[in-house]
Amino acid sequence: MKAKVLFFDDIFSDLFRKELPADQLIWDDNWVAALEQGLAESDQRTGFFLDLVKSGNIGSCIDQIKAEKPDIVMIDLFWPAEAAAKFGDRNLGSNISFEAMKLIRQEFPELPIICYTLKPDKEVMDKAYQSGATIFLEKVSLALAEVQSPLKYILIYLLKKNKS
Amino acid sequence: MFKRSSSFSQKIIADSLLERIPMLAISGEGIVVDRILDEVLELLITQVNADIGQISLLPKAGRVEKLRIIKDRQPWLQKGKNMHLFNPCKGFTGKVIATGKSILVDDIWAQDGPRHTNPFLELASKMNSSYIEEIKKPVSSIIIIPIKRGEDIFCTVELSRYRSKSGFTIDDQLVLDEFAKQYGSLIMDYVLDIKNRIAFKTAHKRLLDFSRTTASNKPVNYRNVVEPYAKLSAADIVLAFFKTGSIHDSSYRMVVWQENNAVEILLKDFMPSKESILRDDIYSLFPVEGMGSDDRLLRFSERIMSYEDISKEKRDMIDDILKTVKSYVVFPLHTLSQELGAIILGSCRPKFWPYLNMNPFLDLYNSLLKSFLLNERVIQYLSDISLKIHNPGYYCLGSLKGAIAKAAPQLLANPKITEAFNGLDKLFGELHDQGKILRWRNKNILFVKWLQVFVNRKSSDYPGLKINLKYNTDDDYKTRILASDEQLETIFENLISNCVRAIAKRQYKENSLVGEINILLELKDKMLEVKIQDNGIIYDTVSGRGVNQIKEEMEALGGSVFVEKNPYQTNLVFPVN
Q1: Residues of B whose CB is below 8 A from A127
Q2: Cβ contacts from A onto B, under 8 A
Q3: Domains in chain A: boundaries
Q4: Could you tell me which residues come within 8 angstroms of residue B400 by beta carbon, excluding any fewer than 6 positions away?
Q5: Which pTM does this prediction carry?
Q6: N or C: which end of chain A has fewer CB within 10 A?
Q7: Domain A2-163 sits in which CATH superfamily?
Q8: Cβ of B395 and A141 within 8 Å?
Q9: Helix (H, G, I), strand (E, B), or coil: what is residue B465?
Q10: pLDDT tens track for A4-45
């Protein structure tokens, strides 16, 4: 079975990438590579082929969903560069994804949304669920495909549940 | 109607004026100063049959300005039209300051003679043209009397007569001297006291705004921050530099203030010169006094003119302004070896340094501003640490662990390695959380209770005012809204200030009026409506910023504000949490 995952993360955002020097961005890119590998590794065994579409443009999430027609959406919680541009406060990075999830929920009530971040707390988890997240996860920063791979099974579960 | 006061024995009776002054001063608004000065000038004009009267302030530190000019019994100096004395050390006023004595001049337009030069003619061409045309040209005879504190002249009163009339006499001068000696300092000290109270309110409001900004997620309004320097000092031009950006950046927000206009310019990647006042090294010496076209100003002007990140129009504007500066004093904002910026008070008058020093209020404001700026920066640095730990810190640690797990997995079984990783993880966690503690967030506020405490505080600030807070039901009382204290304070401070101004305007006409503000709360369809009414009358808005601030904050809270004109009532609608 094939499925498309639209993956919004500020790691792919131009605003964010302009801020960080290349020697610091490398750690983010390592992590993304591990994640991609983790999701791809078990294609043959699970029978699920996940097409990962990466985007850093959370401001136009609705248009992108309409264009890409994903089966599932993954959203990183914290967008400091976008928050600095929008609210003048980098610390309000979570508000960017909360607003995006609310918009997505209004337009696409059934679309599964995975929201995740590094070192979350109860407050952001509750707000993520209130904003429309289907499931909230802690991002694991370890850049190892084997560690990232279990995410695939959560995606499969959500896809199956949504289809049934 | 007018009679000449040329009798030596005639004395100005000021008893009724002295009785009225405290009554006039009750409201504590800016209009009070004008009213008192009008009455003083009216008394003196009538006494010596003058046509024009003016009162000027010339304190060392503080605004050097013409406070009030009355011509033909009507105020001539319009509100908001600031008129600085061109140079209090020159002209006939300069002679009064130099001798400490009043002066009687038969004809201020008399040509220089072989023995005497006319000090006024030397200045006339540089003075404000409408002032020359309407106040100076029609008159010939003037008397200027000094008002002193001890030997220090901090104020002058000038009376003049149209040239069609006979000139003032020595007797007129003596009677005015006697008035100045007996009442001058008493009255003008009182006026200064009121002015200081008003100035203190301005500085206080700006500081409150600033502290609320510090406690919120809003960017600092640097124009507002600079306003007290322009309003409370003798400077014609204020140049303010605020360092901005991260610890390794060297960018500045520059605010240029001239004649009630402020322009904000971002100087990105602007590295201060070696001897710049924006640097604070062990050789730096402050405050700095300088003069027009000195090395510092020329160097800065050259840098601005070659700085291409701002438009040519702005470069030219700064250059023009710098050229008008004839003397200046620099007050640094550096604190605890943080180079935070500097304030430059400039004057278009040469050697004006003694007047450019800050008065005590401005000095206090400046000190507090420094600590707020430092606070703002420290918060920013702390927040940066937290964000850096979040990314790339955790990803870097994750990559390192991943690389070890792949290349030498046995190392992860080594307790020394795992302990080190755990230690790093814990350390990152602590630093990450410490950056989060200073974050701004809304609170679930029991609105009526909050407003009751606020009203109690305001009732103490304005003892002559009745503030009534009414709500109907228990549900109204239990209503909670999602907001921060700072947002609510900004909204209600502005509302109460507007009410006080409207009431003061009416009290100007009706001395016995007791000011009253009514605040009514009502819960309607999950929205809380707050209606604010006062018994004042429409007044000219000072800046209009208050209303904008209210609108901005209400929108940020997901609410709205609308005004009904007849009767005047402000309505706030808050979403209920």
Answers
A1: none
A2: 70
A3: 2-163
A4: none
A5: 0.71
A6: C
A7: Response regulator (3.40.50.2300)
A8: yes
A9: strand
A10: 999 999 999 999 999 888 988 999 999 999 999 998 876 777
